[in-house]
Amino acid sequence: MLAENFIDCFVPAILYLLQNKIKLAVNDCASDTEVLSNYFKKLCEEAGFPMKVAWVEGDGVTEVANKLIDKGEKFESLMHEKALEELKLEPLCAQACVGGLGIAEALRHDLIECASYVCGGYFSGFKDMLKQIKNLNVGFPIAEFHADGSRVIIKENNGGIIIVGSVSSQLLYQIQGPLYCGSDVVAHLEGIKIEQVGEYRVRIIGFKGPSTNHQHRWNEDQIRESLDAANIAKFSLLKFHVNVTSPLDARNQDAATVDFRVFAQSRDRELLRRGNPRGFFRLSMVTFLKLVHGASLGNDMPQAEGTIDSSSARRRRHSGLWAGLRHCGFDDVRFYNSLTQAEIHSGKTSKLGMHVWNKQGIVGCGVLIDFVSYDQKNGTKYDTASFYAITLPKLEDHVWSNSY
């Protein structure tokens, strides 16, 4: 899926792509690639620098997937260890990565496909990188191709790493075995050699064939470094939180996952605007491919921008804890019930909480529903530590049967 903020960063780069004769390949799975190619061609023309834009199509396999489901294919989730039928979800579409030859012609190298991975992002030796302060300014790799078929992976700045270990890790991440099978091309990897040929330089030869507790600190350091001191000074609050912990030998992906959140407040609206290439959201997001191994993004992107409301409207409303910190007055940054930041930091306030509802009532845009009693009534059993979908029909049945 094409990231919306890619467009915000693409337009300023058009001139540099043209001047340096750079070929740019974009992974926009699940998008209409032809429509996108026409759109990006138009952006180049509007900028005064028309360029050739091509696309690869044919990844829509929804019809094939539905036929397999009808024949009994279970499509078991690797994350939840449950079949599609157990999840009670109706597939909207199915995509498959295709066009390997065309992509290979554009990129001609898979070790740099995941950007900062080969420079130390997601690298298992991250503790050593922390000791050497190599987790900052990790950067992106460059692949040199030579006439003898060898290639050298390099980088330009002094952050991150390019070593045999990081290159080997990225290669192992990409392959399934001695044969690297793409959709329409296979690379033979027997006999390849990876060697250090200089600082930030690793050479690979021999390709054959046709054409979690230190993790949050790693990411926090990167985000702070990318924001720089001038931007950090504009925040009235910038906190990094790690919610829950992962047990040893977790039984599935859900149990092995912890939640890492960044909470930011600022009176500078532009700093928090998601479309700003130099704003909080974008500068935080560019660290994603530089993270420690195993990190993945949450899907609730709108929370990255937050909400600013007029204080005169919000202070007259009453709120409990959950919604009370999502809205604030712009002029003096007061929250629901006229709560101030100083009161929040003091830890002694009682202006927010469920007891306020009991005394004064609540004005809100949602209703609390007791879904546990509904499941108990209908004999539904589920593991609270695993994925469980509350479908719309179930929700409507519970609401109408209890006269909410």
Automatic annotation (TrEMBL):
UniProt organism field: Calycina marina
Positions of the Acyclic terpene utilisation N-terminal domain: 3-109, 111-210
Official protein name in the record: Acyclic terpene utilisation N-terminal domain-containing protein
Pfam assignment, any one: AtuA
Coiled-coil spans in chain: none
InterPro entries recorded: AtuA_N
